[in-house]
Amino acid sequence: MRLLRSEHARDLDGMDCAVGVDNVPESVRTLSSLPDLHYADCFTLSTDAEATPEQWARTTFGDVPNAGERLIWRGFLGLRLSRGRSPETVAGWRITARGQDWIRLEAASWFLTANLVLRAADGRVSLGTFLRHDRHLGHGVWRTLSPVHRYLAPRALRAAVARNERRHRSSQRGDQAT
User: Fold this and answer.
1) Where does the source fall among the domains of life (predicted)?
2) Residue 116 confidence (pLDDT) above 50
3) pLDDT 10s digits, 43-80
4) CATH number of the domain residue 89 falls in
5) Which of 23, 86, 115, 141 has the fewest Cβ atoms within 10 angstroms?
6) Which domain holds residue 161?
């Protein structure tokens, strides 16, 4: 069963947005570990900043979840997240796979499994979210939270791009001074 098949747009001041399993670019969708997707979205921005996919993930979400992320991820979604900083996690999500230009984070609760995929290639960075409802409750909870997610996820990506671009400009100025 696939949900939300019909949205694709260029939105949010130049950000490419795709919502729906069939609308998310295959180059990002195939990086999910979930065979039966019930929800997928992808937000993409152009950037001059150069960073590894893990650096993009840590810039976007941090090493540990903030209070708002804990409320949504643990409280509402019941995701089992790791506590504390670890090289094997980003914001409590387990790093389950990576490639030269992407990284996949995974977390699960008793009613859904989720992947976050960050891909950095060709001067663009993408954040994909993929969900599988493992119990009927997953559909109901996500139906309520997905508008919040579609509001927050692109803003988190935009903030990460801004932070990495500032770092990139700063490091270029430092290189020019030497």
Assistant:
1) Bacteria
2) yes
3) 999 998 889 999 999 999 999 999 999 999 999 999 99
4) 3.30.530
5) 86
6) 7-177
Say if residues 69 and 178 touch (Cβ distance below 8 Å): no
Cβ(59)–Cβ(164) under 8 Å? yes
Total domains present in the chain: 1
Residue with tokens 């994909």, as numbered in its chain: 128
What sign has the CA pseudo-torsion 6, 114, 72, 167?
negative
Question: DSSP of the chain, one letter per residue?
Answer: ------EEEEETTTEEEEESTTTS-HHHHTT---SS-SEEEEEEEE-S----HHHHHHHHH-SS--HHHIIIIIIIT------S--TTEETTEEEEEEETTEEEEEEE-SSEEEEEEEEEETTEEEEEEEEEESSHHHHHHHHHHHHHHHHHHHHHHHHHHHHHHHHHHHHHHHHHH-
Q: Is residue 2 part of a domain?
A: no
Q: Which residue, 80, 84, 133, 85, is CA-closest to 111?
A: 133
Q: Minimal CA–CA distance to 129: which of 19, 4, 16?
A: 19
Residue 1 lies in a domain: no
Sheet order of strands, 102-108 included: 7-11, 15-19, 39-46, 124-133, 112-121, 102-108, 93-99, 89-90
